[in-house]
Design a protein that fits this description.
- Pfam families: Vps55 (PF04133).
- The chain is mainly alpha-helical.
- It folds into 2 domains: 39 residues; 65 residues.
- Helix content is 68%, strand content 0%.
- The chain contains 5 helices and no strands.
Amino acid sequence: MSDLPGYMRICLITGKLLSLAILVSGGIVLQILACVLYNNWWPMLSVLTYVLLPMPLLFFAGSNDSIFSESDNSWVNFTKFLTGASTVGGIAIPSILKHAGVIG
């Protein structure tokens, strides 16, 4: 565990990472359960944002840059834009489906 960065060690020691993993997995389970109970699978489109949200950061930002730090690198700025757009999409997809009357 000594080869991990300091912020990761603190996160593992305090249990924040474990609680975050439990909350995210619980949210996904509840979303699947809601789709099964109402026999409507359109809300599962928002699960795509769970998968797509971290991808730009993993591919373009690298491990040295934080999402909150300022950078002159255009790829890092583009990554931050894609992450923000994906976050807005995660909120917009259920809103659009509700407005269209597809979900209850």
